[in-house]
Design goal:
transmembrane, membrane, transmembrane helix
Length: 50
């Protein structure tokens, strides 16, 4: 076995860039869902008070 084969190459930003895209997409989606839930419950509570 060659010693060059046993070395692991460090991961650069180009290698892990997709992780950050998925993470950012999940954050945006969760904020959107939280806003929708807030509006849904606010509207429901307003209708119940009438």
């Amino acid at each position: 076995s060659d010693k060059k084969d046993s070395k692991a190459n460090p991961l650069g930003l180009t290698n892990v860039g997709g992780i950050f895209v998925v993470l950012l997409g999940g954050i945006v989606l969760s904020i959107f869902v939280a806003i929708l839930e807030f509006l849904w419950h606010a509207r429901k509570n307003h209708a119940d008070r009438r």
